[in-house]
From TrEMBL:
It comes from Jiangella alkaliphila. It holds the Pfam family YjbQ. This is Secondary thiamine-phosphate synthase enzyme. SUPFAM superfamilies: YjbQ-like. PROSITE patterns: UPF0047 (PS01314). Belongs to the UPF0047 family.
Amino acid sequence: MHNSSQNGPVDSLLIDLRTGTDLVTDVTRDVLDFCRGRGDGLCQLFVPHATAGLALIETGSGTEPDLADAVDRLLPRQDVYRHRHGSLGHGRDHVLPAFIAPSLTLPVLGGSPALGTWQSVVVVDSNVDNRDRKLRLSFLAG
């Protein structure tokens, strides 16, 4: 589902995602499509969830499993958290957004996000208890 709204100078789109199978879900194509034809401005991305974040990484080169390994080292999926409902180690899912922020802002030039050559936009979500997610894309014209 896509839910679009135009409120003053900000145009916004809400996208449904399915995450949790893998730690990383690539949303670069969604961002490119959203920005296409909009000229110059800022694209703001936000995942309105307590267990998800957004990052810029190189995908397809081994970075995804490297990131998963780093998250496992930093935030082990064990029963060591005070937040204890859900699956084993679900407390770590709620700590993750403190390290991988749930929002991201990208400059847009000529209708294209000014991403580096190897940068992809990804949602990072380790929560296997709830895989239905939303991504809000907002554009502010320059």
